[in-house]
Specification:
By secondary structure, this protein is an alpha/beta fold. The chain has a single domain, classed as Response regulator (Rossmann fold, 3-Layer(aba) Sandwich), CATH 3.40.50.2300. Helices cover 36% and strands 15% of the residues. A 4-stranded parallel β-sheet has the order 2-1-3-4. Helix 1 crosses helix 4 and helix 2 packs across helix 4. The longest helix has 23 residues. The chain is globular and about 45 Å long. The two termini are 23 Å apart.
């Protein structure tokens, strides 16, 4: 009888848990959800940005049911990977027990981009695509 493989646990962190970490959670869960238990959180959680939901839907990933969560909700939990997606979250990232591999991805905040709706959507798409590439690169070895 084969032993069931234990899923590795991943936590994506950003400031508001509204864009970058939400997109990262959705992408990794979509690509490798059978192998990874994926969560996201923020140091100052707010709400999931509608533009993040829209650009994720464009690639067939539905994050419309996601909610913004606080990093405090995950205190004391063990993770295999803790990935900060912005510099502010990196500075405020609490210590997690165990042997978590800590990674930092300094991604621009697409919610802060000014301009027309098309320009703002373009920023969200660029960040989404960068996150997808980073996930494919980082987790191909796992």
């Amino acid at each position: 009888m084969l032993r069931e493989m234990k899923k590795k646990k991943v936590l994506f962190l950003c400031t508001e848990n509204s864009c970058r970490s939400q997109m990262a959670e959705g992408i990794l869960r979509h690509l490798r959800g059978s192998e990874f238990e994926v969560e996201s959180a923020g140091t100052r959680p707010s709400v999931v940005n509608p533009m993040a939901i829209k650009v994720m839907a464009e690639i067939g990933i539905d994050i419309s049911g996601h909610i913004s969560k606080s990093v405090q909700d995950f205190q004391g939990m063990n993770f295999d990977f803790v990935i900060t997606t912005c510099d502010a979250a990196r500075e405020a990232c609490p210590v997690f027990p165990g042997k978590a591999r800590l990674l930092h991805w300094s991604l621009i905040d697409p919610a802060k981009v000014k301009g027309s709706e098309n320009e703002r959507l373009s920023a969200f798409r660029k960040v989404r695509d960068e996150i997808k590439l980073r996930i494919q690169e980082e987790f191909r070895r796992c």
